[in-house]
Amino acid sequence: MRIKKNDNVIMLSGKDRGKTGKVLVVLPRSEKVLVEGLNLIKRHVRARKQGQKGQIVSKERAVSVSSGALVCKSCGKTTRIGYKVEGENKVRVCKKCKGET
Ligand SMILES: [Zn+2]
User: Fold this and answer.
1) Which of 15, 44, 67, 99 is the most buried (most CB within 10 A)?
2) Average pLDDT, the chain
3) Ligand 1 center to residue 3 CA distance, Å?
């Protein structure tokens, strides 16, 4: 998984195409991410108790990693990720600006 929590991603497909959002949760097993404010589903919640109102709650639904692209934090463009080894550490770099992301 090349996308990490707090990365910014732009949606490439689906109803939120072209929108960007911050990654809240990464689900490596299913290769999905939960992006803040994107791919919202509306859940209709019924009133459980008397006097309580039923309501519609919006909630993010996980999207497949392949339907989004990473937005670089340093150059602001959509990009692919490369890796660079610096001493003991492996750092992620943007393939466009070569900056660390
Ligand atoms: Zn960049």
Assistant:
1) 67
2) 91
3) 14
